[in-house]
Amino acid sequence: MAREYGRNQRIAGQLQRELAVLIQREAEGELGMITVSAVDVSPDLKNARVYFTALNLSAEQDVLERELNARAGFFRHQLARILPLKLMPTLRFVFDQSIARANHLNALLDSVAGGNASEQ
């Protein structure tokens, strides 16, 4: 039976915290305000998928994703200096669509609620 809060989740939490600081310090001026929303680490701890959002989309999502993935080696090297892990996971940055989906659903709900209010 798997533990509820295993090693993968602890490492993912550490990676998320440290990456948030690194990205803010190293790339905020060039890429805008980027937030690391989640990190998923593979069971073998070799790969990590880093989900991020951008508060002010100064650049397109795919451009931000490309830029962060281009700098993934640098971030991985910096993390290896900070975190005491034998193997530092390979980082892959993915734009987190959940906020955009939530805003779209809220807009749909508001439009349905507005339509019902006008009928009464």
Itemize the secondary structure elements and their pairings.
Layout: H1 7-31, E1 34-41, E2 47-54, H2 61-70, H3 72-82, E3 90-95, H4 98-119
Parallel strand pairs: 2-3
Antiparallel strand pairs: 1-2
Helix pairs in contact: 1-3
Low-confidence stretches: none
Shape: globular
Class computed from helices, strands and strand pairing: alpha+beta
Q: What does the average pLDDT come to?
A: 85
What's the end-to-end separation, in Å?
54 Å
Specify the number of helices: 4
Specify the helix fraction band.
55-70%
* Strand composition percent: 15-25%
Number of strands: 3
Reported for the largest beta sheet, the result is: 3 strands, mixed
Sequence of secondary-structure elements: HEEHHEH
Verbal overview:
The mean pLDDT is 85. The longest helix has 25 residues, at 7-31. Strand 1 (34-41) and strand 2 form a beta hairpin. 57% of the residues lie in helices and 18% in strands. The chain has four helices and three strands; from the N terminus they run αββααβα. Helix 1 packs across helix 3 (72-82). A three-stranded mixed beta sheet has the order 1-2-3.
